[in-house]
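[audit] Reproducing an earlier prediction to check determinism. Same input, same settings, fresh worker. If the tokens differ from the archived copy the diff job will pick it up downstream; this log only records the rerun itself.
[audit] input (497 residues):
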Amino acid sequence: MSKQYEADSFIKTGGTDSQYLMANGTTSTGPSGGVDVGTGTANKVAKFSDSDTITDSTITDDGTDVSITGKLGIQTAAPDSLIHIEHEDNNYDVARGIHLDYTKDHTGTGWSAGIFGVRSTITHEGTGKTTDVTAGRFQALHEGTGTAYFLYGTSSRGTHNGSGDTGVIWGAFNQGAISGTGTGTHPFLIGTNQLADLNNANASVARMSGVLSYAKTTAGSVTNRMNAGEFGLDCNQGAATAVDAAVLYLTADISNLTVSGTSRTIDSVSTLPSVFAGTMETTSFIKTGGTSSQFLKADGSTDATAYLSGAGTSGNIPIYDSANVLIDNSDLSFNFLTSKVTMGADLDVVGNIECDTITASGWTYVPQTFQSNFVHTGGNHYMNLPFNSLSDVSSGGEQHFLVTPYGGYVHSVAFKNTATGNTMTATNMNFRVLVNGVLSHTSGTQTFTAAARTYKGWALTSTDAIFNAGDDLRFQFRCTSGFWQDTCAVVVLKCII
């Protein structure tokens, strides 16, 4: 009979409530001996506690949220953290341990409380000791023989793609903070700690930097400042004390490092000029290649000049030793009001004195220097001084020396050969003085040698060449033998002024 029956219940003759009616009309206690569903808790996800018993799991699903009590392991049966993920992927594709893509569409006019992609808060309480308390720890581990082009321990990016305004955009924000009223001691308080660690004798690194910071522009404009790194001390928010304070503190321990180039605490490679805007204070400034016998000038150059040192009496001319150190005051003093030098002892001069006038015992010595350029190859013609001539017989024109308003006598005359192009041979020379065109004095002959380009001359008596105020003096000389070129003459007149 092939019919379909529908009823409130089907009762098997002799059947019990612990049996199940099978499709072939027989009874059974259930598959494999039956399953004990037991009793459960509302919203708990059921699980098999054994092969035939169903009980509550640690997962709760209330229709809106799902929660778990205990640890969650993904592809691991023994999680050692609240969330433990283990996965091995051999596919050539992008691999992600966790991928979080979250969007909050806030269209209201007020402020949103905040949006967190991942927020981690680790709280250490109690009186026990803990080595590390870390809110987040990331490690990118490369163990294969292949190539990983970029290996990031952590990568953070703050990106703005919209048209709204922002206050501050941080690619990464790290803060080490101490707050509250606790009295604990803390050896270090560090906002960010970066470490580049090379600990493999078989590895080589092209460039190594503890911190690498770049400020990059591809488009747009920077309306204020642009800094690859900016450091500051903000100690104006409340009272605090410190032993030392530095905006930038640099240390380098290279005692066990072999450097083939130059070791520098700061190395600047830039097309921009290296300019420090502000005040720089340090215990020492060392110039590359500088020595202890040099000092640094304001333009960066060095100077090895041994300058005088010491302290003397104001106005006195000092006496220094061979090390340029002041040892005494001399008998010479300078009057800053009259601009005159006063000597309190005898003057012994070895060499020449060049000055406008020398006054002593009512007399004034008036030195005059003439430069003459001429050639002498023979003959003994007198030539006027000063003049310029390449002829042995040229008088050089009417050149006069007016001593108005002075009167006195010619004290001394000296000559020096100054030629650098031609070498002078042994030369005999004498001179004569004309007063108002009349011969007043003729000197004896002096011999000048080629090797000595120093002054050599004659001292006159008070009656050899006398002149009065307004007289015209003329000095002439002649070479009686040898070759002479480019001479310099010094004439000293003793006058009553």
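[audit] rerun output stored. Observation attached for the diff report: Residues 358-496 form a domain with the Jelly Rolls fold (CATH 2.60.120).
[audit] end
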